[in-house]
Amino acid sequence: MLSLLHIENIAVIEQADIELGEGLTVLSGETGAGKSIVIDAISAILGQRTSRELIRSGAQKGFVSAVFTGIPTELIKKLQEMELNGDEVDTVHVQRQISADGKSICRVNMRPVSASVLKSLSPYFINIHGQHDGQKLMDEQYHIEFLDNFGNAAALLAEYTPLYQRLFALKRQITELDKSEQERLQRIDMLRYHAEEIEAAALVPGEDEALAEKKAVFDNAGKLLGALDAAYRALDGGDEDTPGACALLTVASNEISQISGVSGELQSLYERAEELKYLALDLRDSVSAQQSKIDFSPEESAAAEERLDTIYRLKQKYGATTEEILAYYQEIQQELEKLSCADETRERLHEEYKAGVVQAKAVAARLTALRREAAAKLEKRIVAELADLDMARTRFEIRIETGTRLTAHGMDTVAFLISVNPGEPVKPLSKVASGGELSRVMLAMKNVLTAGEAVGTLIFDEIDTGVSGRAAQKIARKLASIAQKKQTLCVTHLPQIAAMGDSHLLIAKSVREGRSYTDVTPLAQDARVNEVARMISGDNITETTRSSAKELLDAAAASKKRRINDVGF
Question: How many domains does the chain have?
Fold first, then answer.
């Protein structure tokens, strides 16, 4: 159960420490006092989405923490699996900090976790019933979920869901294959033309670069030969009267060699002359070799240019390089294989789909059987609960219609029908139930559906909408009965419900130094009499209303005492 709730800088609550005990705790206060803020703070520690707007004006961050005690065995195991268990085995500390920049920091037993982890743990902590639940009850698409929760259909749904998802995927694949046959054949023709054109070119990776270099040589052949010839003559000499660089360096080297023994410096000059001589001879031979390589052929030049034109045309269509063109060719082959095998693939997928339908329908049939069995039990339980809530003549029916078409939930549609007046046929909840009746139906369902859950705390946010008088008294007694099994918190405007609480928290807003503050105050007996009196008559509290409030509180205490004695507590 929720033992301690600390709220700091959340909306108009600057700081509040709320201690909670077993039984029924009621929260009351004027409209706009901030009762919903307490519920928002609790929602934050349950991993629900929060907004920076929740932070108190002027503060940089908001903070909520909670201590849960007496946690169920299932949660202890889950925390151990997630390595989130604390020093106290049956106690969990949960914290959430909301920053003005929109970021949020969550912790479980002082270890950081994501908001989604908090949300996954929340079913073990608290179950909140608010206006959203009432709206879901009015919407028939959610009725199947209510029934499945009651019937413990989770295991069967876990078996069915992947089968349905697989069928959905297969259907999409088959639809793609069933597109226009003409489109498929046209695509095959086009791809084959592309493939044949690329195959005919017999491309080699990097071939375009080598050809471009070769063509550049051909285009500049005359210039190259002239330059190389001039260089060769400069090195080797044009004739006997015009010696080249090689001959001159040889003469220089020979002359210096004759005096090289005179000194070390002359020896060094000789060595340098010899080195230059051999370098010149080597350069002459390299120039000569390069001349022999240039074998200009107009035919070969034309062939290279034609080949480059072919590659250029392919690049314009299929890729910027020969590598990209060849990669596209591989893609073509794969797609052609896929398109060519479309009939075979379609047949295989159809067979898989048929087998999948049989398998899914078998599981769906088991779901239907489970739902029908659960519906019979739930109908009786709800009718019994409604009788306790002053709706003894109400008929409640769960209608299950089973078709042949598979959906995400199986083959069933589920609708909750009700008749609140004798002699009237059952009709959808949305067309029959008033606000007060809907509140009682929701309370009845909540009591039945949460009875077997591991959750330790139930919160009812204004379950008394549209209720007054005797019905309000019945709801108060039902809440007290629920609170004997699970810790229960109830936000209420009704004195009958407030009087039935085992503890009472007053949510009050005040203005201090120009700022609004909401305080949460546990009420002692005298203060509680005043608050119940206010709920009866508003601000005009008289001795008469105080007497009525005290009488209501005494009657509630006596009712709870009788109930405890009846069940043998």
Answer: 2
